[in-house]
Amino acid sequence: MVQLGFTHRILAAAKQLGLHAAIQTSGFLGHRAHEKFLSCLDLVMLDIKSSNPETYRKVTGRDLEPTLRFAERLAQIGKPVWVRFTLVPGLTDDPANVEGIARFVAPMKNVEWVEVQPFHQLGAFKWNAMNLEYKHANTQSPTPELINRVLEQFRAAGCHAR
Question: How far apart are CA 51 and CA 134, in angstroms?
Answer without folding.
Answer: 24
